[in-house]
Amino acid sequence: MSATPAIRAYALVTAVYWVFTLTDGALRMLVLLHFHERGFHAVALALLFVLYESCGVVTNLFGGWLAARLGLHVTLWAGTALQIIALLILVFLQPDWGIVLASSYVMVAQALSGIAKDLTKMSAKSAIKTLVPAAQDSRLFRWVALLTGSKNALKGVGFFLGGLLLSTLGFQATLLTMAGVLAVMLVISIVSLPRRLGVAKRKTSWKTLFAKTPAINRLSAARFFLFAARDTWFVVGVPIFLAETLGWNFTAVGGFLAAWVIGYGIIQAATPLGLGVLLRGAAPGRGTAIALVIALAAVMAAIPIARQFAVPAAPLLILGLGIFGVVFALNSAVHSYLILAYADHDEVATDVGFYYMANAGGRLLGTLLSGVLFFYAGLDGCLWAAAVCAACAGLLTLGLPRSLQTTPLTALADSGE
Question: CA triplet 378, 382, 385: central angle to 5 degrees?
Fold first, then answer.
């Protein structure tokens, strides 16, 4: 694929992923705050997202295999369509339903949304590998950082919109609006995306789902604990602490989390520029990944230690989240680049699917720990568990290959591209 069609396809895939991400972030805030208002405690709130995260584990594994056989455009369309269905299902949720019925109904809708999210994410990120010519690691690093960073920034906007629209339009009207916007993007992508995007040239067997290189296995295991570290305190602990302990309203909670995720996304998108200076133009490798995850574990441990010295909770949490966001964004950006660098060009969908299966597993563990630990041990319990998860990710990162053939980040500028 020549440069102009590749850029056009990249822009379209990114646009679909952006709109999807807005709805995904808003939906999480809608569900979390709506059911917190109805009296659900932390463990019950965490359970609402169990199927969402569990389905992501299976979806990433088999979604990559399907994409290799049918094309990334098909899995991208399927993910968008499933999100529309999930939103429409939630429209029929009734306020007079009991807790058991309402919870079960929402969990089913969240399961569909989880499948949709991981199909869309796997498709969008795998597409980059197929659109970037081989041996252009500088462009690969920049494109994946831009996609991932912008996605996270927009997820933050989605958090804010979820809290704001819940307070203004209400639950059902917000869901219908998001479903309508997604439907428009689905039609545009069906009309415009190139066919056979990411279809493997050789037949993809079931064995390729698990038969990965040691580098991909270790990076995937590290990713599992990296995202467990984030979600152990961020999914339930932080928003409920802000609402219950600090007394913030829905818009304030959604706005703060939005600002955090937007800043996190901006840092992630700018990672190639910042690391390019520190690494003197080289793309990141094992050493960079190790240094960043050690820094993350240190940040996680520092926050509960500071709380033992009676530091005021609100400024400590805001500052701690800010530092954590910067370090985590750098970690995530480097991981997102490394999986594409390690992936086989012809089987990128299955390799990336396997990697994001581990990512989803980490989110599932973190979600469960966030609810259970916040209920029994408060925010400090969540933070200490997050520090342990980050330390585990660091130990696994030590097993990554010491060398990786990369193109200097300056090569893109030198070549005039």
Answer: 140
Q: How many domains does the chain have?
A: 1
- 156-182 exposure pattern, b = at least 16 Cβ within 10 A, e = fewer: bbbbbbbbbbbeeeebeebbebbbeeb
Distance CA 295, CA 285 (A): 16
* The Cα angle at residue 237 between residues 231 and 239, in degrees rounded to 5: 100
Strands (E), 183-240: none
For residue 231, what are its two tokens?
């979600």
Contact 29, 166 (CB under 8 A): yes
Query: What confidence category does residue 240 fall into, taking pLDDT thresholds of 50, 70 and 90?
Result: confident
CATH code (residue 226): 1.20.1250.20
Amino acid present at 14: T
Claim: this prediction has a pTM higher than 0.85: no
The CA distance from 273 to 382, in Å, is 33
User: Given this model, what pLDDT does residue 363 score?
Assistant: 86
Q: Which amino acid is at 302?
A: A
Q: Is the pLDDT of residue 379 over 60?
A: yes
What is the reported pLDDT for 406?
40
Q: Cα(273)–Cα(263) distance, rounded to whole angstroms? A: 16
Nearest to 179 by CA among 301, 27, 286, 289: 27
Q: What is the pLDDT of residues 172-183, one digit of tens each?
A: 888 998 999 999
- Torsion, Cα 24 30 31 33, to 10 degrees, reads 140
In a domain, 197, yes or no: no
The answer to whether 87 touches 179, Cβ cutoff 8 Å, is yes
Torsion angle, CA of 180/181/182/186, rounded to 10 degrees? 100
Q: Is residue 348 part of a domain?
A: yes
Number of H helices, E strands in the chain: 15, 0
